[in-house]
Amino acid sequence: MAKGKASSRSKIEMKNPIVEMDGDEMTRVMWQMIKDKLLLPYLDLKTEYYDLGLKRRDETDDQITIDAANATMKHKVAVKCATITPDAGRVKEYSLKKQWKSPNGTIRTMLDGTVFRCPILTPRIKPAVSGWKKPIVIGRHAYGDVYRNVEMSIPGPGKVELVYTPADGDQERRMVVHEFKGPGVSMGMYNLVDSITSFARACFTYALDHKINMIFSCKDTISKIYHAQFRLIFRDLFDREYKAKFEAAGITYTYTLIDDAVARIMKSEGGILWALRNYDGDVMSDMVASSFGSLAMMTSDLISPYGYFEYEAAHGTVQRHYYQHLKGEKTSTNCMALLYAWTGALCKRGELDGTPELGKFAELLEKAAIGTIEGGVMTKDLIPFADPKPEKFVYTEEFLDAIKKNLDKLL
Ligand code: NAP
Ligand code: MG
Questions:
Q1: Are residues 368 and 274 in the same domain?
Q2: CA 285 to ligand 2 center in whole angstroms
Q3: 118 CA distance to ligand 2 centroid (A)?
Q4: Fewest beta carbons less than 10 Å away: which of 43, 145, 208, 387?
């Protein structure tokens, strides 16, 4: 590729499209900027475009979300902008027909995927845990357990039981949960072998894809049936399908009790995939994310056991900044995670299509972005974590322009 301005060099060709899901508010604004400044001048960008902006979801009775998920199954690779999950306030704000479900939930269910949250690291931005040098990726099982529970407030003395009534008319099974002598609370929850197996498969796939060691942890010393079932499913699938592949890749799989895992993670230097049950993943992902700094430095990859990949930023639509933007004020919104969603998708597209120049471009784009921060040009959210701190922060568009300048130097 010749050096010089973007216009004078030939654009990188793409064989197959990426499914592009546009979104809402400030991330929609940055989405367009990323395309205009950092992608379209360099790539013959092929996408199949789905507008998941709230207005369009409402107009199509959310069919557009389903279409986008189906397209992901067809083309295998998707990139998604952040989208509003409407609450009552949004229903009013956008005069919606109804409170549409979270698009992420719909897509995740259709692809049967697992979400992996991965921090973007750069030496100048220091994690709160000083030993963490490499990403700690959290794989959270996003089905069942306490998120699909039934629970009951117990007003006074009485018996709570767990009852299983087999559909084939076999003998029912009954266990006493507790004989209450006074008021209390009780809860029932469940999970499915199929769902746990899909989760395990997605985690092993991710670890292999990224060549990183993997830990799965739960509390099977206390929950000898429920939690133990998770451990056994992971172990069984690993031994049958992944052991040889892990050995060939030079990576390891370890099961360890969650208490032990927490201690290990705190003392590790990172570079690990930590697979967790639903509740543990919910809590630990926020702990890990906040240690690594800004929400804008965290990506979210949805990996399906069937080989579909969807990339997005972990943060939302940055509503507060958008309202500022609407008033004509400048914002200092960080586009890193959105940009990494694009580079993740481009890399995967290149890998699946056998077009390494696409992966190479994505790599250079990431390098240009990291180089920008290392050079002291950063958005406001990063300043508290920067060492050394730059004298001033830059605005949204200035940051993108600085990345572009760096990219032009690298190409
Ligand atoms: P948010 O977009 O995650 O932002 C919360 C706060 O975090 C911002 O106000 C900002 O802090 C900071 N922040 C997040 N991303 C940033 C970035 N790129 N650059 C700089 N600062 C950043 O959450 P929200 O504003 O509370 O939610 C807005 C909408 O997002 C909601 O409607 C929700 O449904 C949706 N949402 C979507 C997804 C998704 O599609 N994956 C995920 C979560 C939420 P300061 O205000 O202090 O600057
Ligand atoms: Mg959480």
A1: no
A2: 7
A3: 14
A4: 387
Question: Residue 64: its pLDDT value, please?
Answer: 98
Q: Which atom in ligand 1 lies closest to the alpha carbon of residue 300?
A: 41
pLDDT of residue 8: 61
Q: Which of 318, 329, 381 best tests ligand 1's pocket when mutated (most atoms within 8 Å of CB)? A: 318
CA of 31 from ligand 1 middle (Å) equals 15
Q: What is the mean pLDDT of the chain?
A: 94
Q: Is the dihedral of CA 231, 220, 146, 274 positive or negative?
A: negative
Same domain, 100 and 143: no
Q: How confident is the model at residue 402 (pLDDT cuts 50, 70, 90)?
A: very high
pTM (two decimals): 0.89
Q: Please indicate, yes or no, whether residues 403 and 345 belong to a single structural domain of this protein.
A: yes
**pLDDT digit string, tens, across residues 115-161:** 899 999 999 998 888 889 899 999 999 888 888 889 999 999 999 99
- What pLDDT is attached to residue 2? 42
Residue 4: per-residue pLDDT? 45
Give the number of domains in the chain: 3
CA atoms of 382 and 38, how far apart (whole Å):
21
Same domain, 88 and 168: no
Indicate if 171 and 184 belong to the same structural domain. yes
Residue 112 lies in a domain: yes
Name 198's Cβ contacts closer than 8 Å, sequence gap at least 6.
Answer: 112, 114, 305
Ligand 1 atom showing the smallest separation from residue 333 Cα = 19
Domain range for 279 is 128-148+191-291
Would 164 be classed as within a structural domain?
yes
Cβ 318 under 6 angstroms from ligand 1: yes
Q: How far apart are the C-alpha atoms of 157 and 48, rounded to whole Å?
A: 60
Q: 357 φ, ψ to 5°?
A: -65, -25
Task: Decide if 236 is inside a domain.
Answer: yes
Same domain, 12 and 119: yes
For residue 279, report the distance from its CA to the centre of ligand 2, in Å: 8
Gyration radius (Cα) of the chain, Å: 23
Report the half-sphere exposure of 64 (CA within 13 A, side-chain side): 21
Ligand 1 site-directed mutation target among 25, 104, 317, most atoms within 8 Å of CB: 317
**Percent of residues, the chain, with pLDDT higher than 70:** 98
Confidence of residue 333 (pLDDT cuts 50, 70, 90): very high
| Residue 296 CB less than 6 A away from ligand 1 | yes
